[in-house]
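Case study B.
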Amino acid sequence: MNRESTLYKVVLLGILCAVCGLLLAGVNAITEPIISEAAIANEKANLEKIYPGASFAAVDYTDDSGMIQGVYSADGLGMIYKVKGTGYNADGFTFLLAFNEDGSVGGFQVLEENETAGFGKRCFEEEYVSEIDALTSSDTAPLLSGATLTSTAIQKGFEAAKALFNASH
Amino acid sequence: MSEPVKKRGFWSEMIYNNPVFGLYLGICSTLAITTTLNNAIGMGVAVIVVLTISNIVISLIAPLTPDEIHIPVYIVVIATLVTVVGMLMQAYTPELYSTLGTFIDLIVVNCIILGRAEAYACSHNVAESAKDGLMMGLSYTFSLLAMSLIRQLLGTGVIELSNPMNNQVIFSLRLIPEAFEIPVFTTQTGAFLTFAVLSALVAAYKLNDEKKEKAAAKAKADAAKLAAANAAKAKVKEAA
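Model:
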């Protein structure tokens, strides 16, 4: 084939791209499981608090609310959503919210918060947590008077996680 | 990027054809990531691997490549290699990957790699190209090491190295007491200052070396002249 012809150039670039593509696919197949394992590693200790001993995997998601920071599936048990909300403290707070396979709440676990004691902090105490634990994926999280900002943020986060859960189940 | 006229020693070659301080290539990443020794070594190794393999591959496919498409061909090869190295780093050295961040991907547009492909690898054989890639990669790495040693030491007072696989500290040595740290060296300003001083030193070395070379060449010429004159004299004597 004439080396100066357009066809030659097209074929050469085509072959090169195909070879490179195959190489990338091969390397990706090797590294992908290790990378996704590492992605959970940081979160695993927290996920274990909700579903002890389950095998977890990070799940891809598209979230319109901007509150969801991570979605993890616990094999056969349910889904865990990492949610960031902002209540009274501008730094916000993060919590894990899990839905069991049957749609009931599997767990509500705060990871990081700095809300005011006696007000926002009450959202992470036994009384309110047990209310959340009793909900299902068709309910709305209750507001807590005296901790309106914080509980509103939790309610919004609950809605965002619920929407993702219902879309996938 | 002219080829060296005469054979130089390893270190002299490192300084003379240094891509960063001598040819001013790949400065962007050099300024950005040389805050710690770990970053420098990680980036250096990544560049050595990419540069050596890309030089080898390009010297192999150069005879097949028409002139009009050689840049796209090189870019595809280099981008593939960088992506592979990036994925491997993300899998096996996640800490390093997250600190070096986008600069791993930006190796694609590191001028050293495209520069060596275009200026050297496409017109030399595989062995020569591989050696050139290795040398250029090594001198890039040494430049990074020099920058990061100075910046880390002056900026934090500590020289520290850790295992990128599990992030365990291999050694950590405080050489400057905390009160005498100069934090500006860990910022971009410090990067520019360090870079300027090191480039000036390299330039001074080169200038000095060239002067010496000229002097040596002159001395050699003088000696030859003298020898010729002596020989002529001897001939005259003999004839007499």
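The first helix of chain A runs from residue 6 to 50. The remaining cases will be described in the next quarterly update.
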